[in-house]
């Protein structure tokens, strides 16, 4: 038997072609696996050149991003902020301490709601969006953190009687633990699933606060120096996280396969 | 594939229409004519294609697809050596298509079955190389890209695989 005959024999050893039923059954299974384009992606694809359309599409994009987060995020964040804002109006140390607990809680909520890649099953979480993944992730981080900080600050200032002197303290009290929580979570999420990272950060933070309260160090923790240190550490952690974000976006979004 | 990764579900029909039969042929030949198992592996391959993000636009699609198919086949073999096939699987294969295929109606059906058995008895590297060349009609360069081996290795595997297959068929005859 020569090579040609051998090749012919292999070629002839063929199955019956797939039937229409098999074709349809396979398609039915596979259609479920196809990632659907999310609202955000659709909005991005509808971008136009002129500035009015550009503004319209930007508004659509923000609306789509907001809808992706779901009402649970907005409601729970607002509830936490209202409670902590009410606590902030009280001048005693314990109430300020509550604000310190609430800031990272908002960061935890932000991470849990902002990076639901596996459950949401939408394309832009998976490295296939027209702008870069970093842009989209930063946009979402900005939206989430902006909302959390704005709600908290507005409430605090409003409830403290629009006291201008109290504003810097309010800003730092809200922002420092929030930034530290998000920054630490971002850094940790490069090595483990995002939800686990957020949980660990928040539990560690609460433990630290509890230890400080128990040992009488809580006054030191809310001292201007400690606040400045927390704010600085949070800002640095967040900046480092954002710089290294593109390399780690798949892990951050819960995607385990290589891209 | 690009359209599919952009969320265009309609391109899935085209993808399946174009590659279901070649993939089925590849697995069918590699599994000595077990059509039902081959169909399952075709489905596994497509699912892996949809899930993986390693395809780069502009890269030849067929070698990439058959590289995934070869991995699916390897995983199946690996699992089969660890877990003996269940009676249910065998029954299913028998119920769906007990014969090797349309070749059963041909005059040389017995010989074709022997070819299937001989291919199945070849070592993995020779079997896959032969099937990619003569079953899937991939060029030598495409096979090298699929298996991620040098072109010289593909040639030597083809030569040795052909020699062994000829020998096996000679013994069977």
**Rg measurement of chain A, Å:** 25 Å
Biggest pleated-sheet summary of chain B = none
Order of helices and strands of chain B: HHHHHHHHH
**SS class of chain A:** mainly alpha
Q: How does the major sheet of chain A shape up? A: none
What is the succession of H and E elements of chain A?
HHHHHHHHHHHHH
Oligomer: heterodimer
**Count the strands of chain B?**
0
Q: Which spans of chain A have pLDDT < 50 for at least 5 consecutive residues? A: 123-130, 252-259
Task: Please give the share of residues in helix of chain B.
Answer: over 70%
- Total domains of chain B: 1
Helix content of chain A: over 70%
Shape of chain A: elongated
Bin the strand percentage of chain B.
Answer: under 5%
Given as residue ranges, the uncertain stretches of chain B (5+ residues, pLDDT < 50) are 85-100
Largest interface, with counts of residues having CB < 8 Å to the other chain, equals: A-B, 34 and 50 residues
What does it look like?
With 259 residues, chain A is an all-alpha fold. Chain A has helices spanning 3-12, 20-33, 39-45, 51-69, 71-89, 93-114, 117-120, 133-159, 167-189, 194-215, 218-221, 224-243, 245-252. Chain A has one domain (70-252). Chain A has 13 helices and no strands. In chain A, 33% of the residues are buried. Helix content of chain B is 75%, strand content 0%. Classes of the chains: A mainly alpha (259), B mainly alpha (173). At the A-B interface, helix 1 and helix 2 of A face helix 2, helix 3, helix 6, helix 7 and helix 9 of B.
